[in-house]
Design brief:
heterodimer; A: 207 residues; 4-stranded antiparallel β-sheet; two-stranded antiparallel ribbon; 6 helices; 17% strand; elongated; B: Formate dehydrogenase/DMSO reductase fold
Chain lengths: 207, 483
């Protein structure tokens, strides 16, 4: 059921591809392996790790994330929202005389301005994070190895028409991979549940 | 999250025993895959019982009105606001551990941050109950929100500290929840991938948002936690500052002191850490997590307790001195007669507070006592009692005698329904905590794994020789290849 026959629910960015998957049990072996694989010109689809391995993103040649910039933009949105709203309410919409104090009482608004700055930034960043990583309840993705969230570092190399499978396998073995296999997988996400088995689109259609 | 590739032998390991990555997963996740123990059921049912009693107390308060409580002419705030400030204070340790200690790169936070953050969220939930039900006509509670209404629109008063509280507490709750849950995602994915039954696969599958552990996702995740920590650090300081403004911006003798914000923040951290100790000493024992929440962790938290306890002590004395030095007769009366005079109606509570918060934590200057479980557990209870009395002293002793002696009230003591409400929040807190301990990883699995090879006992043992090699050689041999 999952992503077959329901192309609308499928993330269009994804697609079905073939991967050669190597699992490593030590990040110290993984690092040179990543370097070697890249140097040999193979395309690393992704590396799945049970915890954030520092420097792996650089080794893989990923660019820095700009999530913090988004956070800053949300923050100043919060600041301006709070300030303009309170100014409008107390100077234009309903100027209230509070103990004869000025209507534009900036110092008294600092706490709320600060809180909204933090609130907008935090909520915005988390939503952006979930959007960028395509994380949401009821979202299902292909997992190359169930132990990628436990103790294995799983490298998936994308196969193109030119890729020589046995060569890549040998290459991975030489680099210290423990388990090597070939998987055909959907790269995007689909709406599904983890208690149900999935079938690949092409298997279900029979080609 | 240590930046170092190698950690000195002088430092105590943060993870004891012979562990590898899989063993860490096994140790932390397997308790939540087993049936709960008899002890868990007993604790859970007691908590639910307390919660139900609290619900009934609140039901009486709502149907019959605030008169169910012993609040009176001058004591408009009694147990309710005392409990509110107390719970909010407790809710500060979690974010302090997860945010401030993350920015300071304190490796030991990884063992305790998850449980402390959960505790924060539950404590803030409990805190929020008090001002809400104190409103009396609670069905009007939404009046505190600035929404366009048919009364003008008559907006809320943005200059009022009580409204700042609304924003501060709700922001704090939301941000803590987001911080906690985003940290939980990878660990929930670990539980999902180990799940055997269909139900667990489905539920943890939904809860883990389809997390895969992709490097790019981790990179964003790291950035997210760092920025959230940066945001939460001033936030955690602002929340109790704003709570203290409820008092400090008034003109009630005993309340309008400028020292309140830092003194409240220190007190909040003090009581929060005490509550973390109370919970974690039990959790590590019951769930067998002594290897992850080590004596080193307990000692580190006791150090924070002695530091913040001493700051609080300084604040008490400064406040007393300024009341005298300021030469305001009302202020000085509030301090010298309503509080410090042991023979005044509430004098006992002031000295109880002094003893619990200032004198008793000084025991922790001794390393031997800091590393003693029984003493730590006992002290954590004493500190929590003391911090409850601090809020009680501030609130009740300042208002039971106002400017007009004819309205000096009779002795205030709570009714059973006031106490019931307080017990009910304990029920809520512990019900949530029991459920958390049963269904969620109580220790951040991924974060423990990330410090394992620098701070794990067995890995440190392997590196004993490193400190003997000379620095230059060490750099060439170890650092170059370590990545």
């Amino acid at each position: 059921m999952p992503f077959a026959n329901s192309p609308k629910l499928k993330n269009m960015a994804g697609g079905i591809k073939k991967f050669i998957v190597g699992s490593f049990d030590d990040e110290k072996v993984l690092f040179p392996a990543v370097k070697n694989v890249r140097r040999a010109g193979y395309k690393i689809h992704d590396v799945y790790t049970p915890f954030p391995v520092h420097g792996l993103d650089h080794a893989m040649g990923l660019r820095e994330t700009s999530l913090h910039t988004a956070g800053f933009i949300y923050a100043i949105t919060g600041t301006t929202t709070a300030l303009t709203f309170m100014s409008w309410v107390f100077t234009k919409d309903w100027p209230l005389n509070i103990g004869g104090k000025p209507h534009f009482a900036l110092p008294a608004w600092i706490p709320i301005t600060f809180e909204l700055t933090v609130l907008f930034s935090a909520v915005g960043m988390v939503l952006t994070f979930c959007y960028l990583c395509q994380l949401s309840p009821f979202v299902k993705k292909h997992h190359f190895h169930p132990r990628a969230t436990d103790d294995l570092f799983v490298m998936a190399i994308e196969c193109t028409e030119k890729t020589n499978e046995s060569e890549v396998k040998q290459f991975l073995e030489k680099s210290g991979a423990q388990e090597i296999n070939v998987q055909v997988a959907e790269t995007g996400w689909w709406i599904g549940r983890y208690d149900r088995e999935q079938k690949l689109y092409r298997e279900e259609k029979g080609y | 999250m240590s930046l170092l590739k190698y950690e000195s032998q002088q430092r105590e390991p943060l993870v004891d025993g012979n562990k590898d990555y899989h063993q860490v997963t096994e140790d932390i996740i397997s308790p939540i895959e087993m049936k709960p123990s008899r002890l868990w059921y007993i604790g859970f049912y007691i908590s639910v019982g307390l919660l139900l009693f609290g619900v009934y107390s609140v039901y009486r308060e709502v149907t019959y009105g605030i008169g169910q409580w012993n609040l009176n002419k001058t004591i408009g705030w009694g147990w309710d606001i005392t409990n509110f400030v107390w719970w909010v204070g407790i809710g500060h340790a979690g974010t302090l551990i997860s945010a401030i200690l993350l920015l300071f790169r304190q490796g030991w936070r990884t063992g305790v941050n998850r449980a402390a953050e959960a505790m924060t969220i539950f404590a803030v939930m409990c805190a929020g109950q008090f001002p809400i039900w104190h409103m009396g006509r609670v069905w009007m509670a939404f009046f505190v929100l600035p929404y366009p209404n048919s009364r003008g629109p008559l907006w809320v008063n943005f200059n009022s500290p009580l409204l700042w509280d609304v924003f501060a507490i709700s922001t704090y709750f939301t941000v803590s929840l987001l911080f906690w849950y985003s940290g939980l995602l990878p660990d929930l994915a670990t539980v999902r991938d180990r799940a055997k039954t269909k139900l667990r696969k489905m539920l943890y599958g939904i809860a883990s948002f389809g997390w895969t552990g992709s490097t790019k996702h981790w990179q964003r995740h790291e950035s997210l936690s760092l920025v959230l920590a940066g945001l939460s650090t001033p936030l955690v300081l602002s929340v109790h500052t704003i709570v203290s403004f409820d008092f400090a911006t008034s003109i009630v003798p005993g309340w309008h002191t400028t020292i309140f914000p830092p003194y409240f923040v220190a007190g909040a951290i003090f009581s929060g850490f005490a509550m973390v100790q109370t919970l974690l000493i039990v959790v590590r024992k019951v769930m067998g997590l002594q290897d992850y929440i080590t004596m080193g962790h307990i000692e580190a938290m006791n150090k924070v307790i002695v530091l913040t306890g001493s700051i609080v002590g300084c604040a008490y004395l400064t406040e007393l001195f300024i009341a005298w030095y300021g030469q305001n007769p009302y202020e000085w009366y509030a301090f010298s007669q309503n509080r410090a005079n042991l023979f005044s109606p509430y004098g006992w509570s002031y000295w109880l507070m002094m003893f619990c918060n200032v004198v008793s934590p000084q025991l922790f200057w001794s390393r031997k006592l800091r590393r003693n479980i029984a003493v730590t557990f006992f002290m954590s209870i004493v500190v929590n009692i003391g911090m409850w009395y601090e809020r009680f002293v501030i609130i009740v002793t300042s208002i039971y005698r106002d400017f007009l002696p004819s309205s000096w009230s009779t002795y205030y003591s709570p009714t059973i329904w006031e106490i019931g409400f307080y017990l009910g929040t304990f029920g809520l807190f512990f019900t949530c905590f029991f459920l958390f301990a049963k269904y969620f990883p109580v220790i951040a699995v991924a974060e423990i794994k990330s410090i394992l090879k620098t701070s794990g006992e067995n890995y440190k043992m392997k590196m004993t020789d490193i400190e003997k090699t000379d620095a230059e050689k060490f750099y060439i041999e170890k650092v170059e290849h370590a990545h």
